Structures are given as C-alpha cells and as structure tokens.
Amino acid sequence: MDYEGFFEERLDALHQEGNYRTFADLARRRGGYPVAAHHEGGQVSEVLVWCSNDYLGQGQNPDVIAAMHKALDECGAGAGGTRNISGTNHYHVLLEQELASLHQRDAALLFTSGYVANVTALSTLGMGLPGCLIYSDALNHNSMIEGIRHSRANKRVFAHNDPEDLDRLMSADDPDAPKMVVFESVYSMDGDIAPLDEILSVCEKHNAISYLDEVHAVGMYGETGAGVAERDGVMDRVTVMQGTLAKGFGVVGGYIAASTALVDYIRSYGNGFIFTTSLPPAVAAGALTSVRNVRNSPELRERHQERAATLKAKLHRAGLPVMPSVSHIVPILVGDASLCKDASDALMTRFGIYVQPINYPTVARGTERLRLTPTPLHTDEMMDRLVDALTQIWADLALDKAA
Ligand code: PLP
C-alpha cells in the first residue's frame, strides 16, 4: 500500500470540505488574559482570545500559579510513577478529598484528563456490570462515546435532553438488566442545559446508575461551583459525577466523584487509571488551590453569568445570529464550513481577535459556528470591539443573519 499517498488523500478531502484544522500558535501571557501573543510566519502580534475554555480565568489566578510554583519547588517536576508505583503524591490525595467534598460524595478519583476519566470510568463500568445496558444522550461528547464503545456493552441512544424518549427506551428493556444513563449537564457546543431532575427521575424509576458529565459546569454553576446538579438541588441523586480541572478550574486533569465502593472499583479495575503516570504534583497543587478558591467565590460565578448575558444582548442588538444558549456559551451560527473558517481568519488577520471555527465532526454539517466564551475578564470594550468586527465580517462575507 502507498501509505503516504493514503494519508495525503484523506487530508486533501478535509481541505476540500473546509474541515482541515489549523491551530493558532499562541503564547498566553501571565496576568494578561484574555490577551495572548500570536506567532505566525516569524511575526508576533497581540490577539484578544474569545474562545478559551479557561472559563473563569483560573489558569491565570495568582494564587493558583503560586501554589504550582511552591509544589514545583517542593516536589520537582513529575509524579515519578503510576498511582500504584510511587506516583501517589500527597497533593493528589488532598485534591481527591477536596473534590469528594465539593460534590458531597464519599470519594473521588483523579485522571490525567476529563477525556481519560470518561473513557476509563465508562468502559470499566460497562464492561464489568454483567449484561449492562447503556443509554447515551444523542449529543454526548466523544470521550463518553469512546468509553461506551470500549465497554462493548449494548448501547441505546436517546433523543437529546429528552427524558420521555429515555423512559420509552428503558421500558422496552429487561427490567432486571443493569442499566446506566450517560449524559451531560451543559452541552458545550449549543450551550443548552439538560433537565436533570426529569432525567434522574427516569433513572430512579428504572433503577439505573446515572453518570453525569459536568465538565462545562464545574466551577461555574451551583452555590459552591459543584455544577448544575448543585444548582438544581439534585446532586445527591446522581450516582457518578464527572468533571475536569481544565476548564472552570483552569489547570488540567479529570475526575469522578461517587460512592466509596464505586470509586474503589474504578481505582482497582480501570486501565486508564492504573496504567499511566499520575499528574505532576504541581498540577494537582494548582488544581487544589483553584477548586478551593472557586468554591468560595460566588461573585466570580455571578460576574461570569453577567458577562455572558451582556455579550448575548450586544450581539442580539447588532442583529447577529446568536444561537439560543441558556448558559455561558455563546454560539453564533454560520452554517457553512468554508465561510466559518473565512470568518475566523478575518477576525484574526483584520481585527486581532481569535475565535476558532467549529466545524464537522465537532458539530453537524450545516451548523458550523463561531463559539464565544466570555469570561469574567472580558470587558465591555472588548465586547464592543468583537461585535463591531463581527458586524463588518457578516456584511463583507454576506453571511446569513438568521440563527
Ligand atoms: N466531556 C466533555 C463534555 C467535554 O467537552 C470535554 C472536553 O472538551 C471532555 C469531557 C474532556 O475533558 P478534558 O478537556 O479535561 O479532557
């Protein structure tokens, strides 16, 4: 086989569809967020970042950075092993205790990312529970789909955010079979939020494990930032809470929080937990400080929601096609892969504004979009600059104004 030819042909196909991905070469500036340096063709320019998932700016929080420096000086660079073989650092233990307490659970378990947490926990549960049936929301993130696939359990896909469809599917199955319902709270591309109470009631009716991904909600929703389940007063009804330390908490890493036995089971059988080096101690220390800060900062969450509402209002006033998000995520519909990339390129080259185009397979074809993520650090002036730039680009590219 002509291997190189095969790879080039597949890449050409992406180019032709307008779905070939290029990455902006950025250097974040400590203390300067959301401004970053952009490197291109030997030149460096300043850009205003509007698409980061460092939703609360915790990646730039001085306390978090100081905690990481301190741990780096105390412990050195790497963890030195897998959790089982000398790689359990005291910061990992403290962080797991903090996360268990945040979610009001007996125990929590750290992973190297939210992605690995989902793949490992779902594959381990789905594989281990005899004859397990897994019900997965139609818009679940790839990490959950992969975890379910690796489990080799039978999967049913229920209509997005639709408890009635879930109930219909579950009612048609063997009432005694072990069941697990896998869903998210905030869906990151549309910015909609799941009806947790209704979905959990269906889980309870069918005696199913509920597995809730709160990756785009932890730090940002609920009185102490434990997520939408906390906001909606249903946290004690969720079997497994899953989250990330990379977005609202601004560092990196993933976790689950659940009962002692369930967490111990994943710790003991989960390959993606067992067979990999644990997070560097400095990362765990930074995340620990971030979680503690964010838990005690309701004003950060209020400001975050206010910033999102203000941006949505400004975009609406300018007649731009804001998609109907009820969260901090602000998607603007373009509806074409090439035009979406053109709009993103124009923002960067003409206006020094960075918004990555969101194309297939991240979203369905025909729903390509620009996804804006206002943070507490985005000012009114930054918003006005963005809205003016988008207005000009929409006119120049003759883009549709209907969402
Ligand atoms: N779950 C969802 C819903 C996500 O959107 C993502 C990543 O964006 C992940 C899990 C993976 O989290 P992490 O970035 O920590 O690997």
Kindly list the characteristics that best describe this protein.
single chain; 403 residues; alpha/beta; 7-stranded mixed sheet; 4-stranded mixed sheet; 14 strands; globular; binds pyridoxal-5'-phosphate
Write up this protein.
This protein is α/β, with parallel strands linked by helices and 403 residues long. It is 42% helix and 16% strand. The chain contains 14 helices and 14 strands. The strands form three sheets. Strands 4-10-9-8-7-5-6 form a seven-stranded mixed β-sheet, sandwiched between helices. Strands 1-2-3-12 form a four-stranded mixed β-sheet. Helix 4 (114-128) runs parallel beside helix 5.
Number of beta strands = 14
Estimated radius of gyration:
22 Å
Instruction: Report the biggest beta sheet as strand number plus sense, adding barrel if it closes.
Output: 7 strands, mixed
Strand content: 15-25%
The order of strands across the largest sheet is 4-10-9-8-7-5-6
Order of helices and strands, N to C? Answer: HEEEHHEHEHEHEHEHEEHHHHEHEEEH
Q: Helical region count?
A: 14
Distance from first to last alpha carbon: 46 Å
Low-pLDDT residue spans: none
Tell me roughly what share of residues is in helical segments: 40-55%
Shape: globular
What is the secondary structure topology, with strand pairs?
Layout (H helix, E strand, L loop, with lengths): L2 H15 L7 E4 L6 E6 L2 E7 L12 H14 L14 H13 L4 E5 L2 H15 L4 E5 L4 H10 L2 E5 L4 H9 L7 E6 L11 H10 L3 E5 L14 H4 L8 E5 L9 E5 L1 H10 L1 H4 L6 H15 L2 H20 L12 E4 L3 H15 L1 E2 L2 E2 L10 E4 L7 H17 L7
Parallel strand pairs: 3-12, 5-6, 5-7, 7-8, 8-9
Antiparallel strand pairs: 1-2, 2-3, 4-10, 9-10, 11-14, 13-14
The site of pyridoxal-5'-phosphate has 13 residues, from α4.
